[in-house]
Write the structure tokens for this entry.
Amino acid sequence: MANKESQSVRQLLMSLCIVLAGAGLVWGFVTSRSGDWVQTGLKFFTGEGAERWLSWKVDGLTMFFLFILLLGQGFSSLYALGYLKEYEEKKKSLWPFYVNWFLFLGSMFGVLLADDGFSFLLTWEMMSLFSFFLVLYENEDHQNRRSAYIYLVMTHVATVFLTAATLFLYTKTGSFAFEVWASGAPTLTTIQLNLVFLAFFIGLGTKAGFVPFHIWLPHAHSAAPSPVSSLMSGVMVKVALYLFLRLVWLTLGPGPVWWGWLFLLVGALSAFVGILSASVQSDLKKLLAFSTIENVGILGIALGSAFLARSWNNDWAMDLALVAFFWHTLQHMLLKSLLFMEAGNIIQATHTRNLERLGGLLKRMPKTALGALIGILGITALPPLGGFWGELILFQSLWTNTLNLTNGWSKVVLPLAIGVLALVGGLSIATFVKWFGVSFLGQARSSVTERATEAHFVQVLAPLLICGLAVLSVLWPSATLALLNLPLSVLRTSDVERIRLALGTPLNLSSSYLVLLIFLTVIVVLLSKRGLRRVTATWNCGAPLTPSMQYTAGGLTNPIRVLFAKVLGSRRHVEGDFGGTRYSLRSLRYEGRIKEVFEDFLYRPLIRGLVWLATQIRKLQEGSIHLYLGYLLITVIVVLIIGR
Amino acid sequence: MAGISENWLNLVLLVLLTSGLSIVYSNRVQKALNWWTVQTIAVSLLILAQGVYHDEPEVIFVGVLLLIGKAGIIPILLRRVLRESKTAWVGEIYLKRATSLVVAGALTIIAYDVTKPLMALPQAGFRNGLAVAIALIFFGLLLMMIRKVAIVQVVGILLIDNGIFLAGFFLTQGMPLLVEMGSMFDILVGIVIIVILSKQMLENYDSLNVDHMRSLKG
């Protein structure tokens, strides 16, 4: 059994995290209600003059994401309180986890509060590093080490771009401060501005998980321990999106129209590729990770719509897009961390991530199932939970943008984005039906699943608390809108009240839908209690029911796999042993494979090219005396020619 | 300086350049060594003539030293190693003989080009001399680069040494005796060491091909 001492350490540290998060939230509520600092920003530890570094600032935009971070910190720590018990029982040292957990949280605070390029880069790199260590925590598994390595490489490449952009802006403006950058941005030439934007886009987009920079995300999010996955997926990805607003929207200023298009198209691509890959996954957590890419894509579409509306001076569409962005950010943070926690519960109960081995968990883990069900209702954008309203507002924003246009091809592409969004919505329902149906419904597909029991109390409590919050955010939309108003008042220049006009009615209606649904549920439950429900065994032509009669995870989404075979690069191979007759089948072997399209077509050639280049460069220094003498000759000639 | 007439000077320079090119072009180590000996004799004659015309015993002394030390001792030493190694061919890599001759020609042109700003030397022939000296340095480097037998590379070093010596001579019209002797002693000791090393190579690899030395890399 677990050591008494390490148990109290775990309880102490995680409670400390929760208490700090709670205190932060209370402080945030109190301070953000008062004062005009929300728009202008509250600075602290600011250095002197233009040469300043390590300066920090809080404004409304930061405040919103601080709320997201504090919520994530509180819930994940609460969940970790239970989750970490398993490691304790396995006698695995938890100190690496604690240290990196605290530093990871702290560095995310740093990124959000940074007010200059230097502290931004510093805390950003810290964030990458400590999350890398957390992904590496379960390093006994070779696959996890590989995942962590891919993550490290990708995040490093991203930092190269960010560093380049930061240093470039520093040389141009002579300062690291974001304000100075903002005032210096109009003096840049178009090419410089676009290059800086692209560097930021690649650097931040990698962390956010935009396709095609997303390849690390499914690996890292599924390899990390579940509390870490929920924090990375719920919060860290959002921190990258926050920086898009901070560095591109507020600092580089209104750019050319194509910035908006880039966000929109990359967002649409991410959403589509993300959900398509998720739908054919049979790994419990990888599926969720791909769904994160999808949601980041949706957020990218919202950003794109906002940027486009900004350059077309369409305030209405811009407001809608920004509200959709922040709304969806909040909802996705809540729901995705919830789903990762439920996945963690399943993994701890069954010790497998493979959907094909799960099944029938509803009876064994009812509370986990309840949380998961509410989670997928929210994340698949089904009314009346949060995901739906976010996407609805996004649809409206795209549509308003389209209506305002006279230009030909933009007017065609924008509705196409709506179409993509609709397709993504449909696919996400299929995906999560599979995720929930295969793991919770039916019969257990393996013995480990049969022995599964409900998770630790706090591991059930944390997701259910999030469920409550998700319901509350829709039930009391004016509170949520007040939260959304914090960043909006920083980002927009027009009056603040219009947002209420734009959204008041449908969102206030949202709570009535929810009330109606709860009412309906109560009626159904009451009716079923009154004996109108008949419980019998499922009829199976008289034969007993066996687990192999159920849909498999692969079979459930096979139509999608076949339909999008070109995009997914899916291949299948069926081997049947009919034993002489056509009518009885002795055995059947099915092999399905999904190609990692982006890794195969984009990253492998890139890596091969780099290795080739490295070998070419190594030839310069092969240890051949003749070659070195040749360099000598060339140097002498060049020096003589230059020096004459 | 008016002592050596322009015609004589040009004749000597012709010998120097031709011998340099011939070293690059030669297909046997023995031949390259012979050409180098011819060149060194020409250099010492140039110094001797300079000394005789200007009546400077120091310069004459240097010339004699050159004739004995470089044109005498070094070829004997190298020929001995060569005989032991039974190496005949120069071992071409990167460039064949014909191509290397073309490259050497191009290097000569470059040498003339880089000495253009030094037109103001006291005697017009001296500028030619300087160009030839720098061309010889280039030839030496080229030879070391494109041949793999150790002795040829030694010849390359000697060629460079001749070039440097000539360049010093044409630029300063006679370096101090101490510097001359120092440089000569230096190259002599260098050659002795190289001969020892070459013998060592012969013992270990039974060949003078410097490619074998790669196996010494850690």
Summary: The CA atoms of residues 205 and 215 of chain B lie 11 Å apart. The longest helix of chain B spans residues 57-85. Chain B has seven helices and no strands.
